[in-house]
């Protein structure tokens, strides 16, 4: 479809060594992304396992030289959404993401611990959470994230903006600021100027 | 009286400090750092053997059929 990384073309039937090496290198990122979606490392490993099996089975549809990460993330994300739909609700939960009292290196004004942050992150709507993780944590461009999610780059942009505002509200970072930007008054126009 | 330089809250000079935009930038920065800390901590988690074993099995062709 509109996903060039996943376009089934020029099938190379054998799985090359570089394909395997590439996948191996992506496993930590696949796990981190999966755990960010589902909130549990155990569940994340199930998702990564499923992703590896699918990637191997469809290795022929991966075009060498294209973005392996985007291709794998698309598979993983689709797997997650399938489960998500099947169960009808999210299993997001911080049980599997023990963070102890690890403080996030914030700045002088704000102190935050990782577990608090993860609770807030997992409370976000899934679409905002995945956009924030891809763009804000992994450093993907809006365009790359858009390919993985099969939406327009502008959609990713607005999900990131709304996600940030919502996170700030959940973390109590900006109470006075957010009332003016429409977060505490639901259904007002866009909470943040597009960036 | 109307002392313009009295430093009242309404008295904004040319390098006018807007606490809202300033705090907003800091909030964005904080959220960005927290997102990266969250993600990096997960990336550094040791990969479980079952995933490594799975890749090895796939490579050996044991599970080549879907």
Layout of strands and helices, then pairs:
The complex is a heterodimer of chains A (195) and B (66).
Chain A: H1 17-38, H2 41-57, H3 68-87, E1 103-104, E2 112-113, H4 114-122, H5 126-137, H6 142-149, H7 153-170, H8 175-181
Antiparallel strand pairs in A: 1-2
Chain B: H1 19-43, H2 49-60
**Main beta-sheet annotation of chain A:** 2 strands, antiparallel
Instruction: Compute the number of structural domains of chain A.
Output: 2
The biggest sheet of chain B amounts to:
none
The name of the CATH architecture of the largest domain in chain A is Orthogonal Bundle
Q: Which sequence of strands runs across the widest sheet of chain A? A: 1-2
CATH superfamily caption of the largest domain in chain A: RNA polymerase sigma factor, region 2, helix turn helix motif
Residues in helix, % of chain A: 55-70%
Give the chain pair forming the largest contact, with residue counts. Answer: A-B, 47 and 35 residues
Q: What is the H/E string of chain A?
A: HHHEEHHHHH
Secondary structural class of chain A: mainly alpha
Q: Helix fraction of chain B?
A: 55-70%
Average of pLDDT of chain B: 71
**What's the CATH C level of the largest domain in chain A?**
Mainly Alpha
Radius of gyration of chain A: 18 Å
How far apart are the termini of chain A?
A: 28 Å
Describe the structure.
The complex is a heterodimer of chains A (195) and B (66). Helices cover 58% and strands 2% of the residues of chain A. Chain A is an all-alpha fold and 195 residues long. Chain A has two domains: 1-97, Orthogonal Bundle (Rna Polymerase Sigma Factor, Chain: A), CATH 1.10.1740.10; 106-187, Arc Repressor Mutant, subunit A, CATH 1.10.10.10. In chain A, strand 1 and strand 2 (112-113) form a beta hairpin. Residues 4-13 and 176-195 of chain A have low confidence and may be disordered. With 66 residues, chain B is mainly α. Chain B has a domain at 19-60. Chain B has helices at residues 19-43, 49-60. The relative contact order of chain B is 0.06. Classes of the chains: A mainly alpha (195), B mainly alpha (66). Chain A binds chain B through residues 15, 20, 23-24, 27-29, 31-32, 35-36, 41, 45, 48-49, 52-54, 56-57, 97, 99, 102, 104-107, 109-110, 112, 114, 117-118, 121, 132-133, 136-138, 164, 167-168, 171, 173-174, 177, 180, and chain B through 20, 23-24, 26-45, 47-48, 50-51, 54-55, 58-59, 63-66.
């Amino acid at each position: 479809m509109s996903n060039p990384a996943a376009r089934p073309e020029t099938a190379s039937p054998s799985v090359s060594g570089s394909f395997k090496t590439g996948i191996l290198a992506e496993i930590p990122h696949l796990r981190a992304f999966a755990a960010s979606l589902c909130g549990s490392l155990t569940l994340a490993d199930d998702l990564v396992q499923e992703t590896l099996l699918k990637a191997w089975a469809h290795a022929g549809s991966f075009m060498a030289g294209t973005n392996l990460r985007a291709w794998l993330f698309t598979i993983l994300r689709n797997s997650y959404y399938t489960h998500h739909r099947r169960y009808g609700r999210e299993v997001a939960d911080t049980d599997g993401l023990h963070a102890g009292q690890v403080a996030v290196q914030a700045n002088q004004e704000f102190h935050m611990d990782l577990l608090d942050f993860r609770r807030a992150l997992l409370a976000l709507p899934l679409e905002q959470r995945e956009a924030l993780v891809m763009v804000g944590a992994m450093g993907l461009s809006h365009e790359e994230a858009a390919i993985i999610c099969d939406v327009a780059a502008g959609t990713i942009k607005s999900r990131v903006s709304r996600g940030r505002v919502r996170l700030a509200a959940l973390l109590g970072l900006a109470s006075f600021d957010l009332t003016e930007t429409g977060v505490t008054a639901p259904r007002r126009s866009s909470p943040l100027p597009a960036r | 009286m109307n002392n313009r330089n009295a430093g009242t809250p309404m008295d904004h000079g040319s390098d006018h400090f807007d606490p809202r935009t300033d705090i907003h930038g800091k909030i964005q920065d904080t959220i960005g750092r927290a997102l990266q800390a969250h993600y990096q901590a997960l990336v550094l988690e040791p990969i479980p053997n079952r995933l490594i074993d799975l890749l090895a099995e796939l490579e050996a062709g044991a599970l080549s059929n879907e």
